[in-house]
């Protein structure tokens, strides 16, 4: 089969920008005209609006999702000598956020259905040095939070949700980012809610943790005095232009989320019965948001090549589990083996998913996948 140009991309932002481009430009112009570029009215408004959207009491905008993880963990007291349990099937920033604080990421396996952090594996990884647990709502699938929260409370551990891919996902009726002690969101442009560059946020329901993050993101400054540096902090503030862009997009996030769920339902209906592991659609109060629609098959690479030849884009996230990355070779056997995650790294393939994907294109993807398995 001869390869053709991709006509159905894995992701495109062109249609989104065509719809909201004028509003985004107006928002940027508003900031430029104001002359206020750092921690101004756009930040304040976005913090309040996003907190309300995800059911959190407090939100603090920061400069990236990675910074959000680092600040949340630091605010939770993670530091040199501590251990933090993280899933190994995740983007590397989940682990490096622990490492940059002088702590050690301890890698746990994931659930075979949702690919989120498995509480039974976490239990095996806990030691007297464990300080926190970081469940990742991978691909927009909510982690099973109740057993993780019970485990954390019984051991007096902090829980920091990694919500980089899970804006508006719900777990038993509760929104991702409102369940743990703190949560970290990414607004990288390709995320369900994306900025016009790097951006992120930390949410929490605890006033003391909010104050700690507020100080840490702004050079350790006390909120009450510009030159009263009460701790060693960082410069991780969300700029006003990004906050303004995010406010425009936040108004549409619910509609975009519903569109993603409809596409996922089309895929689920069309791909049932094939030798594929499909992501759960959710039930009751647990609803994924399908940042990615990721299937699994032992024939992953061949299926990807087949779809590429049919003009359909795909993605592989994450082909090497975190505990197998060269950056963590020094941990040796401490991180593994972790068989479910390692299998997922060999088998996972993401199909086209974005809110504007036409139903006809989704049907074409289904037809191409079914043709492969004939």
Cα distance spanning the termini = 15 Å
- Number of continuous helical runs: 12
Total domains:
2
CATH fold field value of the largest domain:
Aspartate Aminotransferase, domain 2
Q: Judging by the overall fold, what is the CATH architecture of the largest domain?
A: 3-Layer(aba) Sandwich
Name its key features.
alpha/beta, globular, 7-stranded mixed beta sheet, single chain, Aspartate Aminotransferase, domain 1, 12 helices, 2 domains
How would you describe this structure to a colleague?
- The structure is a single chain.
- With 374 residues, the protein is of the alpha/beta class.
- 39% of the residues lie in helices and 12% in strands.
- The strands form 3 sheets. It has a 7-stranded mixed β-sheet with strand order 1-9-8-5-4-2-3, sandwiched between helices. Strands 6-7 form a two-stranded antiparallel sheet. Strands 10-11 form a two-stranded antiparallel ribbon.
- α3 (65-75) packs across α4 and α3 (65-75) crosses α7 (207-217).
- It is globular, with a radius of gyration of 21 Å.
How is this fold's topology laid out?
Layout: H1 14-34, H2 41-53, E1 58-62, H3 65-75, E2 83-87, H4 93-99, E3 104-108, H5 119-125, E4 130-133, H6 145-155, E5 158-162, E6 170-171, E7 174-175, E8 182-186, E9 200-204, H7 207-217, H8 240-250, H9 253-271, E10 293-296, H10 300-309, H11 339-347, E11 348-351, H12 359-373
Parallel strand pairs: 2-3, 2-4, 4-5, 5-8
Antiparallel strand pairs: 1-9, 6-7, 8-9, 10-11
């Amino acid at each position: 089969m001869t390869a053709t140009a991709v006509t159905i991309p894995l992701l495109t932002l062109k249609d989104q920008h065509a719809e909201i481009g004028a509003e985004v430009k107006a928002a940027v112009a508003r900031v430029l005209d104001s002359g206020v570029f750092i921690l101004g009215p756009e930040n304040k408004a976005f913090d309040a609006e996003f907190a309300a959207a995800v059911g959190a009491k407090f939100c603090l905008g920061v400069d990236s999702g990675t910074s959000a993880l680092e600040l949340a963990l630091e605010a939770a007291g993670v530091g040199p000598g501590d251990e933090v349990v993280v899933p190994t099937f995740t983007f590397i920033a989940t682990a490096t956020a622990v490492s940059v604080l002088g702590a050690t990421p301890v890698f746990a396996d994931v659930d075979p259905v949702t690919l989120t952090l498995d509480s039974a594996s976490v239990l095996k990884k806990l030691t007297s040095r464990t300080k926190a647990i970081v469940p990742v709502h991978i691909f927009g699938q909510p982690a099973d939070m109740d057993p993780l929260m019970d485990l954390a409370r019984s051991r007096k551990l902090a829980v920091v949700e990694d919500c980089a891919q899970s804006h508006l996902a719900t777990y038993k009726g509760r929104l991702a980012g409102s369940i743990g002690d703190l949560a970290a969101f990414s607004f990288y442009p390709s995320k369900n809610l994306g900025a016009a560059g790097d951006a992120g946020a930390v949410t929490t329901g605890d006033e003391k943790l909010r104050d700690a993050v507020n100080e840490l993101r702004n050079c350790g400054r006390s909120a009450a005095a510009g030159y009263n540096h009460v701790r060693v902090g960082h410069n991780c503030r969300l700029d006003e232009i990004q906050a303004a862009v995010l406010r425009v997009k936040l108004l549409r996030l619910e509609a975009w989320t519903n569109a993603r769920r409809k596409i996922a339902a089309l895929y689920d209906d069309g791909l049932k019965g094939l030798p594929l592991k499909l992501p759960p659609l959710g039930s009751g109060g647990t609803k994924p948001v399908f940042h990615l629609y990721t299937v699994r098959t032992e024939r992953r690479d061949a299926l990807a090549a087949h779809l590429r030849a049919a003009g359909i884009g795909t993605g592989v996230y994450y082909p090497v589990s975190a505990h197998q990355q060269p950056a963590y070779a020094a941990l040796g056997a401490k991180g593994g083996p972790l068989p479910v995650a390692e299998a997922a790294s060999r088998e996972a393939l993401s199909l086209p998913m974005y809110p504007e994907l036409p139903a006809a294109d989704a049907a074409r993807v289904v037809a191409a996948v079914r043709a492969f398995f004939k």
